[in-house]
Structure formats: C-alpha cells, structure tokens
Amino acid sequence: MKLLRKTSNADRAKKHLFASQTTYYAKPLTLVDGHGTHVRDDEGNEYLDAFAGIATTTLGYGDNEVAEAVADQAKKLTHVSTLYLTDELLDYVEKVAAVSPQGMSKTFVTNSGSEANEMAAVISRIYKNSADLLALEHAYHGRTLYTVALAGQSQWRNFGPDMPHVAFVPNPYCYRCPLNLTYPSCEIACAKAAKRIIETSTNGAPAAMIAETIAGVGGIIAPPLEYFKVLQETLAPFGTLLIADEVQAAWGRLGDGMFGINSTYGVVPDIITSAKGAASGLPLGLIITRPELADVFKGPHINTFGGNPLSTRAARVTIEVIEKKDLIANAKRQGDTMLAGLRELQKRYPLIGEVRGHGLMLGIELVKDPKTKAYATEEAGRFLELMRERGILVGRGGRFANVIRVQPALVFDDNDSALFLKACGQVLDALS
Ligand SMILES: Cc1ncc(COP(=O)(O)O)c(C=O)c1O
Fold it and tell me: What is the CATH number of domain 9-62+326-431?
C-alpha cells in the first residue's frame, strides 16, 4: 500500500531528526512491517533482511513466543526500576548464568551495548585501581564518551577534544596485517604487541583490554582461532583483565555456542558484554562476570530502565527459543553455506578481496584490485543499492566502508541463503 504524504520521510527526518542520525541508501528506507526474515517498506516492497537491524532481531521479526510474552507482560508490568526486584529480572539473570562460561554467575542489565561497555570499564578500573585501558585498532564499542574513546577508527572518534586515555593494540586483521606479516608464520605477533604497548603507552598496568570477538562495525574482522589465547597470555603478567565485547557476536550468532569467545575462540574472558540480539529486538544490554569483579563496585548505582520486566522477559524467551529450535546449529549451517557460496563468487569476481567470518557474522571485503587491495568504497555503496533493488538488505562496515556485512536473524533458512547468494552473483555481475 502506497502512503500518500505531502512531505517525504527524508524531508521530515531532515527537519526534526539530528543531522548525525544518518541512514543507509540514497533514498532512505522506511520500514512498516516485518515477518520472520522479511520486512516491508511504506511502498509495499518486501525485502529479505540479511542484516537483521544490525544483528539484533535474533529470532526474526514477530516471533510468536517473544510477541506473546511481551504482550502478556505489557498488560501486567512494563516498568520496574533497579530499586525493586522482579521475577522476570531474576529468571533472566539465572538463565544467563546457566548459559555463560563457568564462574561467570553475575549479571548487570542495562539498555544498550554502550552502557554495558561503560559499566565493564568502570568495574575494571575500580577492581584494578587503574584508569588505563587498552582497545584494538578498528574497534567500535558504542556512543558514550568513554566508549567513543575506546573506538579504534577515527571517523567514530568524533566527540570533540579531551577524550579519556586509551592505548591501542594492532588489530588481528590478517587480510591487511598491520605488522606486514603473514598468518600463521606471524605467530600472532599482533596479540604479543600488547606487551610493548603496555610498556610504552600506559601506566604499566592497564585495568583491562576490551576487544570485540569479531569486529562488526570495523568490517567483520575475524581473528585467527588462537588469537584470544595468545592475547590473554600476553595480558596476564600485567594483571590486565580481558573484556570480550559480544554486543554483536553473542546468542549463537557465531554458530558454535551462546558466546563466541569461549565456544569459537576457546577463551573464558573476565567480563562479557552484550546487547543487540539479546532480547531479539527489545532494548537490553548486559555485563556478565565473576562475583569478585561484579561485587567490587559497592554503588550506589541505578539504571531506571535497566532490567525492566518487558525486555528481560523477551530476553529469557530469546535464549529458550534459540535452545529449543537449535538455532546455533542453524547459524553454523547457513553461515557455512553462504561462506562457501561467496568464496565461489570470489573466484569469478576480483571485486571480492576476502570473504570472512563465522556462522551468521560474515563480511565481504570489496577491493578495486586484489593485488593493490585498494578500498572499493563507492562500489560497496553501489552493492548495497543494487541488493536493495533485488529485495535484499545488507549492512556495511570497515574503516573505509568497503566491507559488506551479512548478519541475518538466526532463523535464516536454506531458501534465504540461496536467495542471498543468487542476488550477490547478480550484483557482482552488474558491478563488473
Ligand atoms: C561491538 C559493539 N559494541 C557496542 C556497541 C554499542 O551498542 P549500542 O548501540 O546498543 O549502544 C555496538 C553497536 O553497534 C557494537 O557493535
């Protein structure tokens, strides 16, 4: 159904939204409806969503069990601040403890990933009595002042002067190794470089190092499988904690377990933060850690909406449905299918420099020429537009916005993966 409005939504947005709220596409997309892996716009066009609201609608749009739980909860109790307890909050944190790595039994619930990372930084600072933090080049951790200071990409470090001090460690970006080495003969020198950075650019004992398990905004940079083990060994002599930012990677997305850091990468960090897909589309962030770290901060601390019964109930149901429908295995199956299909396309189209990722967190790095690896930024913009014309939504990332991000709902099925690959082939043809 076409909506007859005098003013376009692009004009309405320009008039009343902040200029910093930028949208994808030359002609912004207004969504009105969603079902499963599909969304519909205000002109009646249907799209297969391979980005899932930035890796957020874990169970797809309009999942029955989440919708029923939320509707039921909305009639009873939508809001309770952190000053009171609810069974919804307690049921949720018990469930989180049951699926978290052993010993990580305590959770603080927030509304967003930024708040979760901010809290992780605060706890680490207090626990270690140290104000210094480490982060990775190419990192993205949110949009509060502290988390912007943790960003390892200049375009996201845009909050003005006087940012908190953070030292940056080279990213395990093997396709563009910052140390000009080659995996595996490099022996993960980028992780070992944390020692030099600590010794030269910090107070000698940084409280923590924060790292995305797979960098999302940075362009789906998936570290080698032994990376986090080497990193943790490097940090240990300095007593520096490891915070795994799983805002994008958690809840089965990487296809091996609930969290990628222990399931895919075999490491139990000191703190895990998450958000996005946790409540399958409702706002919820969280930090999970061991009791001695959780309890080092005596407060007082408050979060008006954090842990509200609506979001925590949706989040518990999300975990239950992931388990019941075996969606982690599905993430692996669909991810492997798309990875293989994209690698076939890479053989035919030199525009694809690299295809990488795990499960349903995949990236296609576009380059003007595989030899020079020149960033194909304009081509990536065209790729998004041409996919939209074929009824498929994908995301975009990377320091030079030349990486296509594929992060659909965990309910993506065989048909969706096939449609996605077919459209990619057509778009690459059109761009060649
Ligand atoms: C890895 C990572 N951390 C933190 C955040 C911030 O989350 P939020 O936008 O919910 O504050 C994001 C958001 O994209 C993210 O990708």
Answer: 3.90.1150.10
